[in-house]
Design goal:
The chain is mostly helical. Helices cover about 60% and strands about 0% of the residues. It has 13 helices and no strands. The protein starts with 7 loop residues before the first helix and ends in a 28-residue tail after the last helix.
Length: about 240
Amino acid sequence: MGNSQCNPAKCLLYIKTGSTSINYLAHLSLSAFNADLQVGNYLGDLIKGKEFAALPLGLQEGVTMHRGIDRLTDTHPAVRELNALIAKRHGRYATVLSDIGFDHCLYTSWTTFGPAPFREFSRVAYERILESRKYLPARVAPYATDMVAGRWLDVYTTPAGMNDVFHRLRRRVSKPELLDGVEHLLEDYADPFNHAFAALFPDLQDYADGFRHQRTDLPRPETDPLRQPDEHPSGWE
């Protein structure tokens, strides 16, 4: 599966099930302190059914963390308020658009909320995701390859990247007319986006802090393939 078939906008639609995921950049940022949790957060929307139980236990914990982040985001009053506003213009795609926008908000606030300099953060995240492929379901592993090859975390860092995501999104929805004017979304709704993000993200950080007691060598059998008892707790080299 190449990048032409699995770009960020397509995969965002593929994994959406009606809930509000805050998307890759935020999930990977919130879990950056732990390699297993970070990879599991990447997998959170991709893993289905029995695939969860087949994962190494550390990755299972990351998937669980991801889904908790999603639940908190879904129910957050500031996010509900923002989505109701976006829905007036873009209807059913409001939650998809807020997902995209929140990752952009995170990048523009990276000096405040980022766990490490962005290039170092993304380098480590990409390395961890690539190294995990042998433990992933065959169906999912190509997504990891494509993400790193396409440097998806960079997409949300520039206006051009955001416009490209919106353009690709428009081509893949059933009602593209609901995305008319979407290229102006972040500019027109800058204040509501920033307000919602500023209210939401510290709450997500508090939730993520609840996982900090777990080192990369999460309690699990010695035979677990991702058990790395000598790894530095932060995962940074």
